[in-house]
Specification:
This protein starts with 34 loop residues before the first helix and ends in a 9-residue tail after the last helix. The chain is built from three helices and no strands. The radius of gyration is 16 Å and the shape is flat. By secondary structure, it is mainly α.
Amino acid sequence: MPPKEQKTTGFSSKCRFPNRNRKDWDGPLVDFKEVELLRKFLTTSSKLMSRKRAGTSAQEQNALKQAVKQARFMALVPYAGT
């Protein structure tokens, strides 16, 4: 009898930033100065993508949210899309 295939839930439970979640990582999970990285998680209207669409965990999504807020305050990322 062949082994059963596991069901997929439609999204990955992997971390989006696996090399930054280690204990030896010194610094924030996502930094507000990484503008190109932050833009990957923003829609064309400058809204933050959902966790399911971005593939991030809850901790990563919260870190992204805080980094985007700081970047918007520092005028590195726009509040509204073009």
